[in-house]
Design brief:
- This protein has a twelve-stranded mixed β-sheet.
- The chain starts with 12 loop residues before the first strand and ends with a helix.
- It is globular and about 55 Å long.
- The chain has helices at about 50-60, 80-90, 105-115, 130-135, 145-155, 175-185, 210-220, 285-290, 295-310, 315, 330-335, and strands spanning about 15, 65-70, 95-100, 120-125, 160-165, 190-195, 225-230, 240, 250, 265-270, 275, 285.
- With about 325 residues, the protein is of the alpha/beta class.
- The chain has a single domain, classed as TIM Barrel (Alpha-Beta Barrel).
Length: about 325
Amino acid sequence: MTPRDQQGRRLHDLRISVTDRCSFRCPYCMPKELFGPAFEFIKRQQLLTYEEITRLARIFVELGVEKVRLTGGEPLLRRDLCDLIRWLAAVPGIRDLTLTTNGLLLPKFATDLAAAGLDRVTVSLDSLDEAVFGRMNDVGVGVDKILTGIDSALAAGLTPLKVNAVVQRGVNDHTIVDLARHFHGSGVIVRFIEFMDVGTTNGWRLDTVVPTAEIVERIDRVLPLEPVAANYPGEVAKRHRYRDGGGEIGVIASVTQPFCGGCTRARLSPEGKLFSCLFANTGHDLRAPLRAGDSDEDLRQRLARIWGKRDDRYSEIRSAATAQLPRIEMSYIGG
């Protein structure tokens, strides 16, 4: 039976962060001054093994999960990731197996990912402007490398492919229309994401948020849009399609139009902590009972209890008071 939380929300989506390491140092996620050479990442022996991840995924599916997304950090930095994808693809009940990546390693892995059973990918690309993108990834990677990765994923059939762009006022908001125009008519869906206060190290301020309504208005002036119904209950992106038939965009409005009431996501960290909200400050340890010998039924009951007690709605109650609370970092829990 699918458990319901305190707000009546079912469990439907599982996001699995397989590593806290990343090749980029985006200031809104892993600012270089904090995640430098001396930073201690999770040690390999502390990570959940692929066998452990697959076992947990099977139990999550029994509780109602149908969509599984692999995240990080940068998930393609985890060794032999295609093995995990192959095992997850064989789990009955997973209807959508996806991966979020910065795209840099897609030319190397796209074909193998598709062969292993991955359905599609989402690529993070915040701007097509070389100078802006260089500052945002903060390691000097050029736009061309990410576009090559996107082409590799499309060629491998990892579609429908989505591009995620975090929009920050005064940083990359002037390049929104360029990004929309570039992928217009290509079949690639660009999703513009309001800059969120995930974690406590990214320097978030409300005045750096570009509201969804403004994003849509800017694009609509150049490429007329019309709203489209959600694909499924709990979909976080508000959909808009081009009136000329050139595809669609999505906007994720966690700050100005919270969607907590429909959130069906659970998040699993690299070393096995379960988080019931992107803005959580504590997680539930699953690695310890896994390695202590808990049966599948023990784990199933544990997960159902955790979800049943869930009452998270951070984005609906965001305030000066909540801004002072500790929160887990984006690079650790995944987006």
